[in-house]
Design a protein that fits this description.
With 651 residues, this protein is α+β, with helices and mostly antiparallel strands. The protein contains 21 helices and 14 strands. The protein has four domains: 176 residues, no CATH class; 114 residues, Beta Polymerase, domain 2 (2-Layer Sandwich), CATH 3.30.460; 184 residues, Poly(a)-polymerase, middle domain (Orthogonal Bundle), CATH 1.10.1410; 95 residues, no CATH class. It holds the Pfam family MTPAP-like_central.
Length: 651
């Protein structure tokens, strides 16, 4: 997507400057807990001297609930208008919108060849009055549902002439500076500065935040017709401070609107007549989710590709919003995800080093292909984030407080939260712990290196990770990795990680630690984070912001084959015996306690998809069996192929 921004006072100023919001605009002003504030952060929070772009200091709103209310109010005061030419249409859109109120901010972004303007009024009433004056297209049969997503009719020629004179041409995004992430990281003075730059350049932009909050408010408005007290609450990396460009939007529905707090005392003697709920809460949730999916699919503007996943542990409905470019998940019932996001949000407010460290660890996991966007046996970003919290709790002196400490200091009534019999009460004022960071003056570089050493040396065989106490407790099950869910304590966040993937995590931590400790051997352009294994993906990646999750494409020939199981097994055994295929699995516990360091030329296994493609080619070369290319001629392993194998196994 391409972005531009205009700040307006009473009317839209005759200025439309093309900027990239993720670089110079809307840098959240952090409250640093150490005396030495990094200079790179001070520079990133400055506004370009030639523009009148304003900055929002959202970090002054330390409380999570205040941030949510501020963002929702911002979204309820905004509309999105699709136009043909943003230069020629901005003045006309402002002229129409100014009849109903003052336009305080105006954004421009492009999505799938659509030119859209996001306008924010200074009050919610102005946006309501504007939507009340809109109409539907009578020339086309449409579902006449109201939404904050509008489009502008053809503009008169006289307005077009006056518009071109008032607004200069939009700067091309490719001409902007600071567009090369590799160059920025190479020119940094230290690894700590590299980590700050990486976090600053990859964080979710302001327009990305606004589009997600508008989507959330739109869903809330559509469903509140059935449930007037309903609230739609976002959770996940989008709101906990670790959101990146392209992240999805996770939302939880609260029908009563209490959001885990105790309901207010009823003052009126009159109460609503209502249907009785089903005794089976899961079945009731599934029915509600199915109704919500029908509303999204049939009546909600912009919601496409609606999928119902009702048999999951938490039933959800997935959909894609074609005007904001966001993949969304809507769930209902438990609000533990919202309170978990609030906990991580508070940790980010307690110490400024938390977010850059989490960003560096997540990118390291992505570069080493330890994490995956598709659910599977690999470790997740959420698990890595909890391990970072656990690591910071164990520093001496501790940087972050344990959850037990926050529970003991919780204020009655103010901090009490409960959802589905899960107690989510903890202190929700980060100012109580912000002085603690001054006692620990470790740099980001030291923390990142020590975190890798922590991964390398931790006893995953016997111990578990728990941010509740900040201590390594004995494991509660036989899974290779046990990371306790801090709110639903009977759950293991890392239960999906198998032994092979845990081994890869430990070995990649050892490799990265060795590389960072031998920086003298690296070239001037290949040092620090860029020297980590497979960090060359930074050079091939496009640093431009995007709202899409890029799912890797899988070739059809990798899924279908005419080869039988026995032929493939025989080929694998032959290759392993010759040492041609790397299939050896090293125990992470043995690797963690080994004192030998890998050499710089140590051979590492290839990625899963590349290994699969190479393996299929080797199967074709050695067995002479071809893979069909036509999808309609790609049968799965049929009964005809299975019968000879079953007979052979019986013999």
């Amino acid at each position: 997507m391409r972005y531009s921004f205009v700040h307006t006072s009473h009317h839209v100023r005759p200025y439309l400057h093309k900027v990239k919001l993720k670089f110079d605009v809307f840098r959240h002003v952090r409250t640093f807990s150490t005396a030495d504030k990094p200079t790179v952060v001070e520079e990133s929070t400055k506004t370009h001297p030639s523009t009148n772009v304003c900055t929002f200091s959202l970090d002054k709103r330390q409380c999570f609930d205040d941030m949510v209310e501020f963002r929702k109010k911002q979204a309820r005061s905004s509309v999105v208008v699709q136009v043909g030419n943003p230069l020629k249409s901005a003045a006309l859109v402002n002229q129409v919108c100014s009849r109903h109120g003052n336009v305080s901010n105006l954004f421009h972004y492009t999505h799938k060849d659509k030119e859209l303007l996001l306008l924010e009024f200074d009050s919610e009433l102005s946006a309501v009055n504007l939507l009340a004056s809109c109409s539907h297209n009578n020339n086309v049969k449409v579902i006449p549902a109201a939404s904050p997503f509008l489009w502008l009719k053809a503009m008169p020629s006289e307005s077009s002439a006056s518009m071109s004179a008032r607004f200069p041409l939009i700067m091309n995004e490719d001409n902007l500076a600071n567009d090369n992430l590799e160059e920025l990281l190479s020119n940094a003075k230290s690894i700590s500065e590299q980590m700050i730059i990486l976090e600053d350049q990859t964080r979710l932009s302001e327009i990305g935040h606004r589009l997600r909050w508008i989507t959330c408010v739109q869903i809330e408005r559509m469903l509140s017709g059935l449930f007037p007290s309903l609230q739609v609450l976002p959770f996940g990396s989008f709101v906990n401070g670790c959101g990146r460009n392209g992240c999805d939007l996770d939302m939880a529905v609260s029908l009563d609107g209490h959001c885990g707090t105790e309901p207010l005392e009823v003052k009126s003697p009159l109460i609503f007549q209502a249907k009785a709920a089903i005794n089976n809460p899961r079945l009731q949730t599934q029915r509600h989710i199915e109704v919500f999916a029908d509303i999204l699919q049939n009546f909600t503007t912009g919601c496409t590709q609606v999928q119902r996943i009702l048999q999951a542990r938490v039933p959800i409905v997935k959909f894609y919003h074609e005007f904001t470019g966001v993949d969304c998940d809507l769930s209902m019932g438990s609000l533990t995800g919202v309170f978990m996001s609030e906990l991580l949000y508070l940790y980010d407010k307690i110490d400024w080093r938390f977010r850059p460290l989490v960003t560096a660890v997540r990118h390291w996991g992505a570069w080493a292909r330890l994490t995956d966007m598709v659910p599977g046996p690999r470790i997740t970003n959420f698990t890595l984030t909890l391990m970072v919290v656990f690591f910071l709790q164990r520093r001496s002196p501790a940087i972050l407080p344990t959850l037990s400490e926050m529970i003991k200091l919780a204020r009655p009534q103010v901090d009490t939260r409960q959802t589905n019999d899960v107690d989510c009460t903890f202190l929700r004022d980060p100012a109580m712990f912000q002085e603690r960071g001054k006692l620990n003056q470790e740099s980001l570089e030291d923390l990142f290196v020590e975190f890798l050493r922590f991964i390398e040396s931790f006893d995953f065989n016997e111990r578990s990770v728990s941010i509740i106490t900040g201590t390594a407790l004995r494991k509660f099950d036989s899974k290779p990795l046990y990371v306790q869910n801090p709110l639903e304590r009977e759950l293991n966040v890392g239960r999906n990680v198998n032994l092979k993937e845990l081994t890869r995590v430990v070995m990649e931590a050892r490799n990265a630690l060795y590389i960072l400790e031998t920086q003298e051997d690296q070239g001037p352009a290949n040092w620090g984070l860029l020297a980590l294994p497979r960090a060359e993906r930074v050079r091939r990646s496009n640093p431009k912001s995007s709202h899409h999750n890029h799912v890797p494409q899988i070739d059809m020939k990798d899924l279908f084959s005419t080869n039988t199981d026995d032929e493939i097994d025989d080929f694998i055994e032959a290759k392993v015996s010759k040492g041609d295929v790397f299939l050896q699995t090293i125990s992470p516990f043995t690797a963690a306690h080994s004192q030998t360091k890998p050499s710089a030329t140590e051979t590492r296994p290839a990625s899963g998809l590349n290994t699969l493609n190479g393996f299929i080619k080797q199967v074709q070369l050695n067995t002479g069996l071809a893979v069909n290319k036509s999808p309609k001629n790609l049968p799965l392993k049929s009964e005809k192929n299975r019968k000879p194998i079953e007979k052979q196994k019986r013999k």
